[in-house]
Amino acid sequence: MESETNVLGGELDGCSMDPVTGFMRDGYCYPLQRDPGRHEICAVLTESFLQYSKAQGNDLVTPRPELNFPGLEPGDRWCLCVPRWIEAEAAGHAPPVVLEATSEAVLEDVSMETLRENAHEDGQTA
Question: Which is deepest, 18, 26, 52, 98, by most CB within 10 Å?
Answer without folding.
Answer: 98
